[in-house]
Fold this protein.
Amino acid sequence: MMPRDTNAAGTIFGGVILSYVDQAAAVEAHRQNPRRKFVTVAMKEVVFKQPVRVGDLLTLYTRTDRIGTTSVSIHVDVEVYRPGSQEKIPVTEADVVFVAVDDQGRPVPVREGA
Ligand SMILES: CC(C)(COP(=O)(O)OP(=O)(O)OC[C@H]1O[C@@H](n2cnc3c(N)ncnc32)[C@H](O)[C@@H]1OP(=O)(O)O)[C@@H](O)C(=O)NCCC(=O)NCCS
């Protein structure tokens, strides 16, 4: 993480982490159907468990929790390695819901045409 991403307290701004969470979850959603366009409909149960610091190496792990008709729910765990340490520290977790949409932005079945 870079100094440009800090908040007034000097740690990493939560919105930056959320942006990475959204992107990682979107990649996971596309695994369910690479041909579909997905949009984020909800970010749920976001927990910032530990601050993230400048120099931390961020790693995001994703898991598909549920495939609905037009939606897919993804769980994201975020961990960091601190410089000089081999310890992995859990910092954030979130559940993100995506909806598969057509070119007009209307919900369509996730798995159709997969
Ligand atoms: C996503 C969007 C197309 C859904 O439209 P909608 O008319 O609410 O769709 P529906 O009510 O038919 O719901 C579609 C699916 O989303 C799910 N859903 C809707 N709102 C939800 C919420 N708040 N939390 C979890 N799931 C939700 C529904 O359960 C349904 O899932 P299912 O088909 O698997 O049962 C519409 O809300 C939208 O365009 N939102 C903006 C998306 C966007 O631009 N995201 C980027 C960030 S700004």
Q: What stands out?
A: Residues 3-101 form a domain with the Thiol Ester Dehydrase; Chain A fold (CATH 3.10.129.10). Residues 103 and 109 are 13 Å apart (CA to CA). Strands lie at 37-48, 57-67, 71-81, 88-101.
